[in-house]
Design brief:
Layout lengths: L1 H42 L1 H10 L2 E6 L6 E2 L5 E13 L1 H4 L2 H9 L6 H13 L6 E4 L4 H9 L7 E10 L7 H4 L2 E3 L2 H6 L13 E3 L2 H5 L1 H5 L3 E7 L5 E8 L7 E3 L3 H11 L4 E7 L5 E7 L5 H5 L3 H9 L21 H11 L8 E3 L2 E4 L2 E4 L7 E3 L1 H7 L2 H11 L1 H10 L21 H8 L5 H8 L9 H13 L8 E4 L2 E2 L12 H16 L18 E7 L6 H6 L14 E8 L6 E7 L5 H18 L13 H10 L16
Parallel strand pairs: 2-10
Antiparallel strand pairs: 1-8, 2-3, 3-4, 3-5, 6-7, 8-9, 10-17, 11-12, 11-21, 13-16, 14-15, 17-18, 19-20, 20-21
Helix pairs in contact: 11-23, 14-16, 14-17, 15-21, 16-19
């Protein structure tokens, strides 16, 4: 009995022990489970919420609206237009090729475009949207939107695309935009993430490129909810970015259009500059091109036409072109000689039609010679021998120094592409460039703007403005960025004798208004707008002794590309200069016959605020001038146009 009772007690104690152990184990398990649940649901809740959310929420960049560009009077030059497009995201689409084929059954999608998209998809990250087609019609855009449930990863979007409403007028100045290329990305040290977006457009040339940072703006972002196959269900949040700054240029759109039309089919360049401020009022290179073609994707055929044109429409001749300035350079030689004290305005030089140095003869353009000439008559009649003679007295180094002081041989800082600094040669330059000593003949050639001297139309306009004002005028192209005025560049006095400047200006006045002036046929009749100027004819070929003896072949009898360049510089009004103009017509022939009439028309347009009144022209020319203006194909700027009717 006692044994049975003892066994029972032992059994109960064993059960209790096992129960205690099991209960402890279960308690420990529950405690560990609770701790783990707390760790997952409380301590790591935010991390796992984000991981889960990433499966259903995407964050995408919103391209900023590009800043617009306006002329000095607020006319739109470069704007943005609505663009319907469709994009595909590989991460959401799955079988991209199948989706694209399905898309092609809904809207016209050429096989070449499909192939191009597939290659782009492979190149880009899976989450980056790729533009399949843009500039869609509203009808096609609607079809895609309606069929979106059967097009995983495909999203119809409404974006902005660049448009140039004045097309050819500002092609060289403003430039154009295009999709970001690998080369663009390599050039940028820390590229903005928005540049990774497919076909995101940035400036390629001109103002569009050199003010890219101001025009681009800052991207925004949006959070969108997607389903299990990546289809967008709804937009959860949108943070708008900052649009780019608008720009206002110094150029007048009407003057620009007039200059473009006035140059017509010539291969030429023309610049008009405000003498007091340095503001560029017109900056035209002809022929031009339509920048909208590049934005939309220019065809190989259209591009070949531009490349093969011998008048080089893609080149901006105003800043990229480097030309011998010809006789427009004679003011530089004259000022250098005056400042060096080797001549006075009254110093006479006899011109028999040639100038001899050793056994070599340098000819004046007038075969019979000009007789004895002084500074004013030498400028008015453009006597070469006079400048040959005084150049030998002053030397090339002082001539080059004066040229640089007047803005030649210097790269002017403007937001334009491939600006040339030209060539303002001196002894050191030739030694460094050619490892040769400077020769007397080099000085003679340079004295009349030939030989090694090269200048751009912009530099010639700056030179003329500096002579007219007596100050170191700097050209300005951008007037405002956003709401901030761009400060006018400093224009200190040139540190030249006012009497010497006055003498050169008087010689330029005689060019237009003197009895023997080379450009008197292009004078202005309005006494309040009298102009001063200088013609130039730059040779592009050598004239042999045999040809000179038998008679120099006329320009119109030569192939176009062997004819002389025609140049002209001017400013007005003479007593109170406001505007300076330079014109270069490639292979145009004589500066007085070809370039001067063009420059006069633009000068008067800028001074009078529109089509020049016929009263500004000599009475004998008014019929011809009126017919010329009637034939010009000018743009209609609407009711707010500042163009005045002809008097």
């Amino acid at each position: 009995m006692k044994r049975t009772q003892r066994d029972t007690e032992d059994s109960v104690r064993g059960v209790r022990r096992r129960a205690f152990l099991m209960g402890g184990a279960m308690t420990a398990f529950v405690a560990v489970l609770g701790a783990r649940m707390r760790y997952l649901q409380v301590d790591q809740a935010e991390e796992f919420r984000l991981l889960a959310e990433e499966n259903r929420v995407n964050i995408r960049l919103i391209p900023p609206a590009r800043g617009q560009i306006f002329d000095r009077n607020g006319r739109l030059i470069a704007g943005n237009e609505q663009n319907y497009r469709v994009v595909i995201t590989r991460e959401d689409a799955g079988d991209v090729e199948m989706v694209l084929k399905r898309l092609a059954s809904i809207v016209a999608l050429p096989p070449a475009d499909i192939e191009k998209t597939l290659k782009e998809v492979e190149r880009r990250s899976p989450f980056v949207p790729i533009i399949v087609a843009d500039r869609l019609s509203w009808e096609d855009f609607s079809k895609i939107a309606i069929n979106s449930p059967s097009l995983p990863g495909v999203t119809p979007e409404v974006g902005l695309s660049r448009v140039y409403p004045l097309d050819q007028d500002f092609a060289h100045v403003v430039g154009y935009v295009g999709p970001v290329s690998e080369r663009d990305l390599e050039r940028i040290e820390n590229p903005d993430p928005v540049l990774q977006l497919p076909k995101f457009q940035i400036g390629k040339v001109g103002v569009e490129r050199w003010t890219e940072a101001e025009l681009r703006g800052r991207a925004g972002q949006k959070r969108i909810e997607v389903n299990s196959v990546g289809r967008v269900m709804r937009e959860l949040e949108r943070l708008e970015g900052d649009p780019g700054d608008d720009l206002r240029l110094t150029i007048d759109a009407e003057a620009q259009n007039f200059a473009q039309a006035r140059l017509g089919d010539e291969s030429a360049a023309m610049v008009a500059i405000d003498v007091q401020t340095g503001d560029l009022l017109a900056c035209v290179s002809a022929p031009s091109f339509d920048p909208n073609l590049f934005v939309r994707g220019i065809s190989q055929k259209d591009y070949s036409v531009l490349l093969e044109n011998d008048h080089r429409p893609l080149a901006d001749k105003t800043v990229q072109g480097a030309y011998p300035p010809g006789s427009t350079f004679k003011m530089v030689t004259a000022l250098a000689a005056l400042e060096a004290g080797v001549i006075t305005p009254q110093t006479g030089v006899y011109c028999p039609g040639h100038y001899e140095v050793g056994s070599r003869r340098f000819h004046c353009w007038k075969r019979s010679g000009h007789g004895t000439v002084s500074l004013h008559s030498a400028l008015a009649e453009s006597c070469d021998v006079y400048f040959y003679d005084i150049a030998q007295k002053v030397g090339i180094d002082k001539i080059a120094e004066m040229g640089r002081k007047l803005g030649l041989g210097i790269r002017h800082d403007l937001p334009m592409s491939a600006i040339t600094e030209g060539v303002m040669p001196d002894k050191a330059w030739k030694q460094e460039r050619y490892k040769q000593d400077w020769r007397i003949g080099d000085t003679i050639n340079a004295s009349i703007g030939q030989g090694y001297v090269l200048t751009s139309p912009l530099q010639l306009a700056v030179m003329t403005a500096r002579i007219a004002s007596g100050r170191a005028i700097q050209p300005r192209l951008v007037r405002m960025i956003g709401t901030q005025e761009v400060p006018l560049p400093e224009a200190p006095p040139l540190d030249l004798s006012s009497q010497h400047l006055a003498s050169v200006r008087r010689g330029m006045y005689e060019v237009m208004n003197g009895a023997h002036g080379t450009a008197k046929g292009s004078r202005i009749a309005d006494e309040t707008l009298l102009m001063a100027g200088k013609t130039g004819t730059a040779q592009v070929r050598n004239i042999s002794t045999q040809e000179r003896a038998s008679g120099v072949v006329r320009n119109d009898q030569l192939p176009w590309n062997r004819r002389d360049h025609a140049l002209f510089v001017c400013y007005a009004p003479f007593e109170n200069p406001r505007v300076a103009v330079s014109v270069v017509v490639e292979h145009g022939g004589g500066g007085s016959a070809v370039a001067a009439p063009i420059a006069r028309d633009l000068l008067l347009f800028c001074l009078t605020g529109g089509i020049p009144p016929l009263s500004a022209y000599p009475a004998s020319q008014r019929g011809t001038i009126e017919s010329r203006f009637n034939d010009l194909k000018l743009r209609d700027f609407g009711a707010d146009s500042t163009t005045r009717s002809r008097a």
